[in-house]
Amino acid sequence: MNESPAPSEPTTPPAPGSRRPGGRTARTRAAVRDAVLSGLAEHGYPGLTVEYVAEHSGVHKTTLYRRWGTLEGLVADALDLAGEDTWTPPDTGSLAGDLRALAREVSESFADPAAAAAPTAFVGAAFQSPRAAEALRAFYAERFRRCEPVVERAVERGEAPPGTDAGAVVRAASAPLFLRLFVTREPVDTALADQSAAAALAAVEAGAFTTSNG
Amino acid sequence: MNESPAPSEPTTPPAPGSRRPGGRTARTRAAVRDAVLSGLAEHGYPGLTVEYVAEHSGVHKTTLYRRWGTLEGLVADALDLAGEDTWTPPDTGSLAGDLRALAREVSESFADPAAAAAPTAFVGAAFQSPRAAEALRAFYAERFRRCEPVVERAVERGEAPPGTDAGAVVRAASAPLFLRLFVTREPVDTALADQSAAAALAAVEAGAFTTSNG
Fold it and tell me: Residue spans with biased composition (Low complexity) (chains A, B) (predicted)?
């Protein structure tokens, strides 16, 4: 898909992630996002180039530079777009089940090296690019925000004390997995996901996450 | 310190990290380690060069290539050397106090951006260099292994159930901090360290880390 600016397009480049143009512009953005993802999966952030993105998206390099500015902008926008999905947290009917499902989602999504390559490269890119770091921060803030109803429902059901810090709970349930995946470089599996979820649940029940505790 | 091989030195380069030669060789290794650390702090892994290490250590580039092979080897050896310190975990007399001290050590060591720069660069380097990743894995495996007596003492004092998975507990106490520092890019502080430690303690007391639970 080679693209030249259409007359109806604004002359100033849209700030990636700040609006969601429909139609061809949205398709271009998705094609660029896909090329960034495959480039990150194949080469990691240090090996990704604007040339690669142009070649694999079919969008001309000039257009990429005009709209996204830099490689950092391309990576940040791919993360922004990833965060615009309709993902919702599990709703199994119990806090134990929901936390276990959340933790297993993390361990399973990183079990397949091919599937894990692009998300891992995003985490790595944040060490080198302030814009990628900010996009990653926003991505996870939104992900964990969406998880908060898991804890709110548990409070309503009487499974968690009122005043439980929902954000802290959903982070704690997956934190031991992220620690091993991205810092200590240790393997993770379903048993570890279940242990992490069970530990977070026990801490919730003991009131370790109630805000009066902090 | 410019160095040329002394007659008494073995002609084969010592595998970095596999032995600890004393005297001048040890001083050279420490000088090279210091240069790697300052380079990582200043430029991060992508900006570190063998030239920088040569200039800042006073060790000739030829010597660096002969002994350490590559930039990856230099970074891995700096991590190996960091792991050869005499660090021991806190021993406050209670599991609550020890876990809190451990978690606070993590939050405090990353509170100062200047002090955090080199360790952060090591974590980032592991995304690009398999040798750095392996050295980082070994470093943290050893660190957490040294922490296990914290839990063993707690079992002896009756503060933790027999069969508590010590490695899982000490990782859980700091995992929410590492998650925020290196993945979600959120701030950490003492209150968060205390919350993480309290959550791990509550999970221990509830038996969430006993191996029969896994």
Answer: 17-27
Say yes or no for a CB contact (<8 Å) between A128 and B174: no
Residue of A45, A127, A165, A196 to mutate, testing the B interface (most B Cβ within 10 Å of its Cβ):
A127
Give the pLDDT of residue B181.
97
- The closest CB to that of B128, out of A124, A194, A200, belongs to A124
Which tens digit of pLDDT belongs to each residue from A56-78? Answer: 999 999 999 999 999 999 999 99
Q: How many CB atoms lie within 10 A of CB B85?
A: 9
Question: In the listed set A51, A82, A113, which residue is the last one of a domain according to the structure?
Answer: A82
Task: List the CATH number of the domain containing B47.
Answer: 1.10.10.60
Residue B114 pLDDT > 90, yes or no? no
Structure tokens at A114: 């091919």
Residue B11 has pLDDT above 70, yes or no: no
Residue A136 lies in domain: 95-213
B204 and B132 share one domain: yes
Q: Which residues of chain A have pLDDT under 50?
A: 1-19, 213-214
* Interface residue A87 vs chain B (CB under 8 A): no
Burial environment of residue B22 by CB neighbours within 10 A (0 to 12, 13 to 18, 19 or more): exposed
Identity of the residue numbered A184: T
One DSSP character per residue, B8-74 reads TS-SSPPPTTT----HHHHHHHHHHHHHHHHHHHHHHHHH--HHHHHHHH---HHHHHHHH-SHHHH
pLDDT for position A77: 95
Domain count, chain B: 2
Q: Is residue B11 part of a domain?
A: no
- CATH number of residue A161's parent domain: 1.10.357.10
Residues B109, B206, single domain; the answer is: yes
Residues B128 and B158 in one domain: yes
Which B-chain residues 114-143 have CB contacts (< 8 A) with chain A?
120-121, 123-124, 126-128, 133-134, 136-137, 140-141
Q: What is the pLDDT of residues B164-214, one digit of tens each?
A: 999 999 999 999 999 999 999 999 999 999 999 999 999 999 999 998 644
CB B127 to CB A141 under 8 A?
Answer: no
Q: B199: distance to nearest CA of chain A, Å?
A: 5
H/E segment holding residue B179? helix B166-182
DSSP state at residue A210 = B
pLDDT band at residue B22 under the 50/70/90 scheme: low
Residues A131, A28 share a domain:
no
B131-145 average pLDDT score:
96
Is B12 part of a structural domain of the chain? no
Which chain A residues touch B131 with a CB distance below 8 Å?
none
Least CA distance to A43: which residue of chain B? B128
Check whether residue A104 and residue A187 sit in a common domain: yes
A206 and A128 both lie in a single domain: yes
